[in-house]
Amino acid sequence: MQYASGAFSVRTGRDLHPITGVRWAGAIAYCNWLSARDGLAACYTLATGACDFTRSGYRLPTEAEWEYAARGGQTNPYRKFPWGDDTNTAAADLAAEPLAPRPGHFPARAKNVIWLFINGGPSHVDTFDHKPELEKRDGQPLPGFDKNTGFFADQVGGLMKSPFEFRRHGESGAWVSSLFPQMARHVDKMAFIKSCWTDSNNHAPALLKINTGMARMGFPCTGSWVTYGLGSENRDLPGFVVMYDTKGRGLPKGYAQNWSAGFLPGVFQGTGIDTAGAPIPNLSRLQGMTDGEQRAQFDLAARLNGRHLDGSGADLALQARIESYELAYRMQMAAPEALDLAAETKETQDLYGLHDPTCGHFAKQCLIARRLVERGVRFVQIYSGGEENQKSWDGHDDIRGNHAGFAAETDRPIAALLEDLARRGMLDETLVIWGGEFGRLPIAQKSARPGRDHNPHAFTVWLAGGGTKAGTCHGATDDVGFKAVHDRVSVNDLHATILHLLGMDHKRLVFRFNGRDFRLTDVAGVVVADVLA
């Protein structure tokens, strides 16, 4: 049986446009004419219009086949129809191989992303946002302060100066506290955004907001949107990889929702790697099984799952499981090689601090991140810190000890990552992001060793590489660092900027779900032009 595809449009010279005004009788007569021309058995009975699907001749696609083709060759009911002047060839590519590399909306400055997620809410006024006024007014109340701004209204103290010394560094003269002596050497690579703000003072919704653009569960995270839009450049590795705390301090609040694909196809969700043990569970084949036997097993499972998928319609979870089996099969060779740090020189291992008992675990993750993007992985996210309180940068008690401890774990590896990317010529095409879910208040949280409570009104993020303007600073907070006041940057603005650097228009990167088009930036977002090179 043959499809009579494109015959009318080719004859008129309008190859990508359907011909209008053709009656059914004329269309099936044309199919029979094609069949006779090629010596095939005609499918249609012209008197009744009935089609004999067992015959070898030409026929028109059925309604179901048209629907399938219009959706880019997939069963996903949310995909837009690719026809007319805006032919969406990417949709067909997405169906055939969802992680295949795809072009953005315009030329990209960055090809890959490494997001260093400083989990728990690092204090901007103790890291990069120097506030001399805090020293002058140390211990004084903050006028007009709402005690419900933070999380512990009964522990509100006065303004508290930073326990860390600030100094200017680099030709840009950027302020950096004594927490980060190694990172301070690289400030001329960084573009600081010191006027970020968010909607929530609670970890779980704030984490979801900074990761997914929404403060509630069920939405795709940034890494999922990026791989959905661009695919990846290595079909044998996940397009989006996540690494988290390996010191027994737990996962970030919200757990895997922070790297979920939400309503996007599951193939775009983050793949977690446990760098303390077996990086990817169940990746090795059973002992004694040959490659051919395993391939046959996968093929059988794929056929059975495919039949079930055909009968169940748009089952995104099943579709994701089928794709994950195929990816796991391909990863058996590629993943161990990518994660083999013994292949790195001693000089590189020492640069990161791979064998340092304080920072070695985070050094391992940063070095793996470089190796992954070097091999074409599109998006890598590394979490510093575990669940909350003293297990993360959540310095409610003893801000000095809390931040000093986590800074010691991350300062050297992050500085090494920037240096290593730069000397390999990779920094220009790799966007590095540093930041957490919110900032911390400039006032003390009362305790035996004072800390700082959550502050959704202000926090700092820095970007490096990937088309950012090195050695710059955008925005500012007030004199004590309580609120972002100049050139404020919302989470939506940050996301719009990340997508822009990757060559995507945040208003055009959409997915239809529940009857409306969704974006990472929802209905907001403005690109922060000041940080673009």
**At the first level of CATH, what is the class of the largest domain?**
Alpha Beta
* CATH architect. name of the largest domain: 3-Layer(aba) Sandwich
CATH topology of the largest domain, by name, is: Alkaline Phosphatase, subunit A
Domain unit count: 3
Query: Which geometry do the CA atoms define?
Result: elongated
Helix amount, in percent? 25-40%
The parts where pLDDT drops under 50 for at least 5 residues are 5-16, 74-93
Mean pLDDT: 87
Number of strands: 22
Q: Looking at the chains present, what oligomeric state does this protein adopt?
A: single chain
Number of helices: 13
Tell me the span between the first and last alpha carbons: 56 Å
Care to describe what's here?
The protein has 533 residues and is an alpha/beta fold. It has 3 domains: 2-96, no CATH class; 112-125 and 168-279 and 339-531, Alkaline Phosphatase, subunit A (3-Layer(aba) Sandwich), CATH 3.40.720; 283-338, no CATH class. The protein has 13 helices and 22 strands. The strands form 8 sheets. The chain has an 8-stranded mixed β-sheet with strand order 11-10-12-5-13-17-9-18, with helices on both faces. Strands 1-4 form a two-stranded parallel ribbon. It has a two-stranded antiparallel ribbon with strand order 2-3. A hairpin with a 4-residue loop joins strand 7 (166-169) and strand 8. Helix 8 runs antiparallel to helix 9. The longest helix has 25 residues, at 399-423. The N and C termini lie far apart (56 Å). The model is unreliable at 5-16 and 74-93 (pLDDT under 50).
